[in-house]
Amino acid sequence: MFNVLIALLSVSAASGWTARRLAPLPAPAVVRPPQTYSTATHRMMDVRTTRDVEWAATLNAHNASLLQYNYAVFFDAGSSGTRMYIYHWNEVMNNTGLVTPQNDARNCSTRLSDFRDEPERVGPSLKACFDFAAQSIPADKHTATRVRLGATAGMRIVATENATAANGVLTAIYQYLRANYNFSVTEGDIHILPAEDETAYVWAAVNYAAKVLQDPLERNNTWTSLYMGGASTDVSMDVSKRDSTATAGLAADYSLTLFDHTFPLFIKNFICYGKDQAFLRYQALLVKSSNFVSPVYNPCGAWNHTIIVRHKDLFNAACSTVRVPEELTSQESYEIIGTADFQGCRNMTRRLFMLDFALQPAQCPFNDAGTCPLVTGGGHIFYGRLLASGGFAYDASTLSLLSNRTFVVSVPFDIDGQRRALHELCSTRYVDVMDMAYSANVKAEFALRACFDGVYSGTMLSDVYRLDDETLKNSVFSRSVNDEDVSWTLGWALITSVTKNTTVTSPNSAGVLRAVSLSAVSFLVFVPFLFSFVIHLQF
After folding, report:
1. pLDDT exceeds cutoff 70 at 261
2. Domain boundaries, the chain
3. Which end of the chain has fewer CB atoms within 10 angstroms, the N or the C?
């Protein structure tokens, strides 16, 4: 048993939401495939409908106001690294800024968890990104530019082991910023982002990019977000327009006000079920299955691919739930050899959802039929269009590249082609996987993980979320909507842009905390999960 720790942030009065540019105004909310237009063609496609013109005129007359450009800088400090986003806006609509990214995300490389023992080094490790922001934003705007950093599941996990060390890293970043730059930043701006906030921000980013939030006539067509990260995975959807049967047992547990409209959201964030943490548990499960004796055989691994893993990396982490006999705790390492066994890979991956997690409180027990809305009634409960982003989209894209595009990640999604490609990859020799990686320009480490990642994502979507094939075919696997990156930072930028006091409401709103015990807050997780339902994986 262990108590998971988390930082709980109540987004205070800055919690309204924002819109995007006024032209072109919303057409049906779809993800446009990549296209190239001539100037003349683009003009023709920008012709507005009568409804668009009337809507724009009304908004301009009553709510839009021109401002000087406002800037904000956001850091997504995830478990695999830190990315920086710069946003700006010079118009507001319904008290929310029309936020636009100034440039693509900038990879800062830094993993905050690497600095728990040397916090004095974390600030300088981010210097290149800080400098880029300073150069990208006019100097006379620096003092008015808000800088905010949200550390996500990776640092939540670090805080389970040492909250003092986690806070030390965050404080060091704040002090470095204050000492070397003129940006507007408070100590509370550099914090561990509560899981429910991160999940809601993703939902807002998706629906803002889809131009649903901005148009009152489109608000019945909100998208549902399914996101896979490295250390956690999450679900978010609007429940305001669900019919009474579908909504049974499905209560809104988060409320966002954006564009002067309040959206009740159903959100779930599952710590330790991101694909990187799942992979570590998978390896630990393999070692246990071999009675902690090398060699250990890996059915998801390419044939004859051999690696050495350290005992402490698999069994000493906060997300590890595989029990180790006392006499084996001094074990140094294990040799793991790939066997390229697709069926064995599927079977072993399913077991990850049956491990006995000691996470508390247990609010979504999958072995208690009828209490968890994600598995109630034998079918999925999701509403509207589905966007599978983060790892879901990356895994599909990587597999497409490795298979020499035998299937294409588009709408409708070729689920049958994806499954054939995954089966072939998971039955391939190490030397052939390396050739595939070279030909597809995919890093070897990602190619060698692609079998496990694909099977794990498929298990999550088909068995945990219970998406049938027809739903999967109509889902969008992408990291962007309308060419807009839907990082949760966009949602946070929308909140930051709000021009009047509104509130974000969640059951856990209780002020700004940096790193606190998760056992003391209402954090939704996957817990002891015995398969009380029949699994039908169809790869």
Report:
1. yes
2. 5-34+47-206+483-517, 273-356+386-474
3. N
